[in-house]
Amino acid sequence: MSSLVKKLGLAVGLFFIVSLLAFLWQFPNSLWVQSAWVEQALPKNIKISESSGQIADGVLRLQAKPVQPGRPVPVGDLSWIWQRQDLFKGEAGFNVQWHLQDSSFSAELSHSVMSSELRLDSARGSLSIPTLISVASAFTPFAIQAEGRIHLAELHGLLGFEPKVWPLNLQGKGDVEGLTSMGIALPKITFTLSQAKNREIQVNLQGGENNWRLNGILSITPNGRYNLNVDVTANRAEDLPQWTVMMRKKRRNQAVLKLGGSWL
Fold this sequence. Notes:
Elements: H1 2-25, H2 29-32, H3 36-41, E1 46-54, E2 57-64, E3 73-83, E4 91-100, E5 103-112, E6 118-128, H4 129-136, E7 147-160, E8 166-181, E9 184-185, E10 189-195, E11 201-209, E12 212-220, E13 225-234, E14 248-251, E15 254-262
Antiparallel strand pairs: 1-2, 2-3, 3-4, 4-5, 5-6, 6-7, 7-8, 8-9, 8-10, 10-11, 11-12, 12-13, 13-15, 14-15
């Protein structure tokens, strides 16, 4: 008899928990996006200009206050769909999509009750470089003119929140096509993403043509520093691309570039 009562109590408790969650998920976005913790979670100069839908299935339109005086900079629309079946695994899972003009990015995000981190899976996107530069203008006065498109594929990892938001165990790959800037046109460049134990993100670059090759490594640290090392080696000195005159000659058929600084 006591066993039956326990099972009945468990079933009733589970029913109320599921009912409560279902009720909360139907709350309109306009109510919870005004809460203080949402504002604190966003970067300092990003604001929510519009919201629609519900907690379980909604859209936020984001904009940023520019570094220099001017009109707010569109940051894009962020939409999500709650994956209810993940509750049976003890997780809260969402399909998330970001869209701005001709750029988009999608991913699966999940959070386990046993973890303080957010899992990122199946992330992919197609990003216009001019659009990314436009968004970046809200965070830094430095701006360059460039064309091209970045394709991301098979990106996955974790997002940690202590001591600040930063990827963990990040892995992925992609390519950059049609990159042109300051009169320089580059062929297709492929890249792979990985992460060292010190949480530093490393991007390995490869590209080139029949008579020359480009190899490089971009390192990005959590404390806001970056280092870029690029090596261009040709079969013969005359095969080096013309734009390598801006790089340091290591040998007659080899040019190198080293840059470093703050990205914050």
